[in-house]
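User: We ran a pulldown and think these components assemble together. Before we commit to crystallization trials, I'd like a predicted model of the whole complex to look at. Sequences follow.
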Amino acid sequence: MPELPEVESFRRYFEATALGQKVVRLEINAPKIVQSPIAEVESALINHTLVSTDRIGKYLFVQTSANKTLMLHFGMTGELEYFRDIDLTPRFTRVLFWLENGFLAFTDPRKFGKLAVGNSIAEFQQAKKLSTDALTITLTEFAKNLGKRKMPIKSALLDQKVAAGVGNWIADEILFQAKIHPQTLVWQLTTEQIALMYQKMQAILRLAVQHEAYYRDFPRDYLIHSRGWTDEEPANCPNCDSKIPHIYISGRASYYCEQCQNLII
DNA sequence: CCCCATGTTGTAGG
DNA sequence: TCCTACAACATGGG
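Assistant: Here's a predicted model for the assembly, 265 residues in total across the polymer chains.
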């Protein structure tokens, strides 16, 4: 479930299970996920140690002792799973890292995930035109990246050039808590509204990372409980109890409260 | 069977 | 050239 908080959990999981270990073998079951030539991936990893991890937005980076950077992106359904017994290899394993002391599987049923090797994080960040991570970005940069564009704010928040790591539910949650209608055009937002979105974004991300992205533990007044998401009952607005509708904005389902989030046009 | 899905990217059109 | 909308990607699950 990879938005910024989930990927941060994956990063910590990677550190806890695989860091400091040597890769002894690599098994690639879904070649389309691998974006670099196999020979480059192998020379960056095989017989090399996994030295450190970093994260920008939804991208996880691993430095190897070959002085190369491994990039992992989890698409919609990617996850990491460490295990000791090869017979326990999970379903949907697309890439399997054989380590000295166990196995790390990159699982991804939908195969939208990506894995690549490069020389540095900066190289990837430039190539993807990726913004600063949403947890460390300043208000000034956030406002500058939003600019005066004419698209709905919901679409702009999903643009990884604005604040790296914001995904669909986080964008909805930011707008709900800031009481801004998702279809409000960016150029119409006031300085105060942008500052408020920024504060909410920081608070939501910090809380989600603290809870390891386990949304059931989020505060009761978060919109996320109201979207009829996975196996939970859809609920009404935690503030005003009105029904939460959903609309599509540039192809993505967007949940909001008609009473609490005003559309200014 | 039909529809939906947590993301990114290439392309078409203005 | 810049900006925006949207289909496409591949697959499982309700």
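Chain A has two domains: 4-128, 139-255. That may be worth checking against your pulldown data before setting up trials.

User: Thanks, that helps.
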